[in-house]
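Review box. Two proteins, two foldings.
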Amino acid sequence: MDRPQFPSDISREQFEHVRGMLEAARRKTRPRKHDLYDVFCAVLFLLETRGAWRSMPPEFPPWRTVHEYFTQWTMLREANVTLLERALVTVGRDKAAEHLRNLLAPR
């Protein structure tokens, strides 16, 4: 969907760095109706403006859709933090930090 740019938007190039992780968080029950980039930018908009879900501009996907994705992504974040904490304890801080740098390095 073509929509106006908002100050909170990131570029599609920046979005590609997190696309895989965000797609992995979703239950694959049916084809996606909304562009994941637009959903992500809607979350960024709400976080920046501190607005209410229902006050989201109509150019974004429906607020309930954005909220559902946000909930799934929040659970993914919590799981990643737990895994990182376990890695720090299991393999030690230096090895875990090195592994994290490797994961985040541009490809």
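Next protein.
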Amino acid sequence: MLLLSIFAGFATLLAAIGLYGVISYSVAQRTKEIGIRMALGGQRTDMVRMVLRQSGTLVLIGMLVGVPVALAATRLLGTMLYGVGATDILTYLLVLALLGASAFFASIIPAFRATKVDPDDRASL
């Protein structure tokens, strides 16, 4: 059980790193757009909100797809579980909260990096 917990921790870490990479790439691709928005009066908080909304949408779609798949997989894994039911709602909620928090923290760095775009510096665009 300890070994499975360690692997699950590494899988969560890899998922957060992957989400960080996707969001960082997306922010890098949208540097010109973000610079134009800021030049036209967009606030830094608006840019952070925009990036977090984008990553939140990706995470929400992943959760909406992942929960039914996980529920379907419980029939296969039900015999391996010890001390928890195959459809334990509290476990699902805790996992969703953990994944949501890790996605938020993986997205916050690219979100703040998006606010560093200087609309007056043409070299950064």
